[in-house]
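Job type: complex structure
Entries:
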Amino acid sequence: MQVRVTVRLKPGVLDPQGKAVETALHTLGMADLSDVRQGKIFEFEVATASADEARRQAEQAAQALLANLVIEDFHVEVLGS
Amino acid sequence: MKAGVIVFPGSNCDRDVAVVLEAVTGSAPAMVWHGDHDLPELDLIVLPGGFSYGDYLRCGAMSAKSPIMREVVKAAEAGTAVLGICNGFQVLTEAGLLPGALMRNRDLNFICKDVWLRVEDCASRFTLGYEDEQRILVPIAHHDGNYYADDATLERLEGEGQVLFRYVDEQGEASKAANPNGSRNNIAGILNADGNVLGMMPHPERMAEAALGGTDGRVLFESLLDTLS
């Protein structure tokens, strides 16, 4: 089962990298873009035919390693087989 | 005092701190590889500075899951003194031994310079040799030293006297201008609640002999020697 985990900084946690990207976008003339936040995406296979089991294992991976829950939230999508 | 230094792939201050530990304690520390499953009997465990695992994923995240860290966590919980310097501080937060997280510096720069710190409490085993509110000069060298903790955690750290070092200006004031990396409350180093685990971004081992520019950092190791011997 293919899974995607998106890791983002929690709301309220400062994101200096997102800020720098935003400044660069403005320099390129994209003045309407704001509130840029930078995150990470992980995609992997889970060896199971069950979507629930794939989600459970992906959540376990996110909590154990992929995300630092002090500063980050995560979101799991099961993409199917 | 028997000290040990944990060596991760990408550590680069392990030998520096070993030199200081040998000079202060009179015996060479044990160098313990991150993949080992056993820790020798130690009074002090040092997690050195560097770029363990190339800072992949998050600084310190991979090291915090290495086999030896399970033993370090057990030893810390049993009361062994643990000192994490720079990358070592990042590993300690990722391993859950210290609260909060070290984020990318406010201005996104790698900063390598001497900074003034204020010793907030000289009653800890790490700071007995200093005077309260003493101002000391110690170098920093990091890209991710921007200490973050949520409001409740910050309040607890401040209330319980767990903030041990703060970035200050030459007058000893924790001003915004003296904050090199955006750390909340100018925090440079914190203790755990039990007082046996210290994480700090500045490098005391790089200011431990006159030839390096000063000895303010050496006092920390001498304090440990006095307490742990």
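Summary: The interface with chain B takes residues 13-14, 16-17, 20, 64-66, 68, 70-71 of chain A (CB under 8 Å). Helices of chain A lie at 16-27, 51-66.
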